[in-house]
What does this fold into?
Amino acid sequence: MLSQAVILVGGQGTRLRPLTYRLPKPMIPVLNRPFLEHTLAYLKSHGVGSAILALSYLPEAIQSHLGNGANHNMALSYAVEASPLGTAGAVKNAEPYLEGTFAVLNGDIFTDLNLDAMLGFHRSRGAEATIALTRVDDPCSFGVVETEEGGRVRRFVEKPSPDQVTSHWINAGVYILEPEVLRHIPQASHYMFERGLFPRLLELGEPVYGYPFSGYWLDMGTPEKYLNLNCDLLSAKVISHLIPDLSRDGVSCAADTVIHPSASISGPVVIGGGSRIDRGARITGPVVIGADCRIGEGASLERAVLWTGVSIEAGSRLKQCLVNRSETGGKEQVISFGQP
Ligand code: GTP
It folds into this structure.
């Protein structure tokens, strides 16, 4: 069993703007709970008892929310960078907290990858580094990993053009590493796993393996993928260990939600505390409604995620969208994705 994991929380998540303007990407709510809480629950379910958060963007927002981790049954430490050190540099910065074999997770992926099985693979191969691999139809915007039979990595190809595609297995952003590999990462300099450490380990002839898995994997990098993640969880395409008892076809709502008797709600729907659903409103899941929202008379919502404090005007029709309150002026902003 792995006892430690480093979670990488770096960039601003530029593709997720305007959601992440003042909120680090891993704090954005998924089923009304910060994304990182789902990650911690996932790690906990695999017996990981201690996580080190490698932070470079808005670290205070995360530290003040999670503290020492006592509320999340996880011992938390923080390795904060003065300026971004890159994915591998951030792990080097966390070295003082690391003891023995550990996992590294990109802070923006959701997966049900079995970490115990991956560790068994890592040990059976005598690997120094094992990279989880997921299969995608179009690998052109990802880091492709070519392996030999048995899983040893032969080559990395970053963002191949369509005619360069030789494998559909991509780096899933979850690694198991032996502490010895840290000596190949320069101290206090910007250094990446994909373009730096992993190719360097190959050059040195170190045993680097790819671990293919076929479970759920999503990089929450764009608003549309973020919506998909919420909907996948609501529809039980994947389970969050944070909310394992979510009502799959029903309606989960806080005790103080007020729902007008003429409103129609068909699950799966989650509604946060203090929200109000007015006369004749129609909600067709999968839908997440944050705390303190108001759905006006006759409004309809379908496949949508609403953040805290959103007000939907009477008679509005919203489908396939995200709604939050903009930073400036507190007005609702709707990010929609057309028809499903
Ligand atoms: P952003 O959208 O900028 O967050 O990154 P990305 O989704 O394009 O992914 P990338 O491959 O650059 O990074 C993978 C993971 O490492 C993401 O969770 C990033 O937030 C995180 N990361 C990237 N650079 C840094 C860094 O300099 N420091 C730390 N601590 N984390 C980083």
Summary: The chain has two domains: 4-219, 247-336. Residues 247-336 form a domain with the UDP N-Acetylglucosamine Acyltransferase; domain 1 fold (CATH 2.160.10.10). The first helix runs from residue 35 to 45. The longest strand covers residues 169-177.
